[in-house]
What we know:
Layout: H1 8-25, H2 30-39, H3 44-56, H4 62-77, H5 81-90, H6 95-102, H7 107-123, H8 130-143, H9 148-162, H10 171-174
Helix pairs in contact: 2-3, 4-5, 4-6, 5-6, 7-9, 8-9
Amino acid sequence: MDPAELPPDERRKKAKEICFDLLAARPRSAEELRQALKRKGFDEETTETLLGKLDQAGLINDAEFAEMWVRSRHANMGLARNALVAELKRKGIDGDIAVQAADEVDREAEEQRARELVRKRMRSLGNVDEQTAIRRLLGFLARKGYPQGLAYTVIRDELREFGAESALLDDAALD
């Protein structure tokens, strides 16, 4: 069905149904809804009018969406601030709003989550040598968006705690 072939009232109604269905599944950014309507073939005027009404009704709010996204992805996926900002930008959230939302995760919380991730990952490393363990853990934290310095510190501390005592853990070897 091509939305352009529908009468204006039916077109608006169908666009509204699509947005409500998407919002029922999870909160969405305005850009996500805009792109969904565009993919379905809705014209810009219908899309922007509907998004304006949804915004006025409080059904979409990019700042609230960003805050919710940050809390969820940091807690469940262990993503660091850098990765969270990048994800939000890909979802069409303004850069300033994304940074502000990611600032909700402070350095302490980020470090604590990195430690949890490293402890969990170390159990699945098996009997690999320390250099391989360090390399894999660094790559793992990098993919989650953790800064290199923080990753080195956390991995060094956690490997020492785990019982590794080689020269690989010296500050100079990790720098």
